[in-house]
């Protein structure tokens, strides 16, 4: 018998979105990847890095990438930490702020991985629900949990919280407010000003969605230098390899390419949303690179299966609050046209 820690033995573990072996035979709209390739400057930067220099350790501070991010977002690099995927920095925030038996919280539905990370740490997990109009339910006037994770834009639903609401919420917490802005590049507003103004707000970002770099594992966080210094103590000292650092710096630098991709996705999102409504689906207006939509008969499983049979992969959640619909990533216009065609074939149900 192996003597695992209790919490590890008991926890279920996170199940990431399905990645099929024969990925090329699918229209893959299930993990919010970007349909466009990374910037040519990113490919070039990685290629330049491949060579004899790989025998040397990378820069432990990811200095060039942090400087590039600092210029772009208007922060001194001491306010920025690079991460091996934003999942890494979410994990390290829990390790920095929530000890064993202490509480963290997040909104349900949102990104359930926060809960998994907290379970590994032995922290307690609390969730706050949402009203019909997408307001968090039941957060005490003064909440003393160590961390509250707010996914903004919300995933999988796609709506956003106002900056007024987020600022007020931060003032009600004795712990940290982590605004997970994984999808903010597809939205209109960011909480970066709140990071500057309030001492308990952290913003996390990822390169996996808007920068087309899910395969590189890159993210970052922006927070007060004291918070960044704590996170630096916890992370692997060489958390970003040389290729990842080169990719991050080039991706942030090539804003023209990035803005063009984001604009195309937003345009396709508007078109796809209108088409879904035209065929009778309920669609939540989305600020992400996905939409959450429900068929007329509110049977998400039926439509998931119908799309799967036509080699179109989307995300269906069995959670009772989400099982009536599907989260569909915005791909290219052509992929979304084929998806609408498939949904018409599948029909409204009943
Ligand atoms: C994709 C996603 C992440 C993880 O991003 P990585 O950088 O790929 O680890 C974090 N939060 C949310 C809400 C996401 O959707």
Automatic annotation (TrEMBL):
InterPro entries: Aminotrans_II_pyridoxalP_BS (IPR001917), Aminotransferase_I/II_large (IPR004839), HisP_aminotrans (IPR005861), PyrdxlP-dep_Trfase (IPR015424), PyrdxlP-dep_Trfase_major (IPR015421), PyrdxlP-dep_Trfase_small (IPR015422). This is Histidinol-phosphate aminotransferase. Its cofactor is pyridoxal 5'-phosphate. NCBIfam families: hisC. It comes from Geomonas propionica. Belongs to the class-II pyridoxal-phosphate-dependent aminotransferase family. Histidinol-phosphate aminotransferase subfamily. Pathway: Amino-acid biosynthesis; L-histidine biosynthesis; L-histidine from 5-phospho-alpha-D-ribose 1-diphosphate: step 7/9. CDD domains: AAT_like. It catalyses: L-histidinol phosphate + 2-oxoglutarate = 3-(imidazol-4-yl)-2-oxopropyl phosphate + L-glutamate. SUPFAM superfamilies: PLP-dependent transferases. Its EC number is 2.6.1.9. Pfam families: Aminotran_1_2 (PF00155). The modification N6-(pyridoxal phosphate)lysine is found at residue 209. Keywords: Amino-acid biosynthesis, Aminotransferase, Histidine biosynthesis, Pyridoxal phosphate, Transferase. Homodimer.
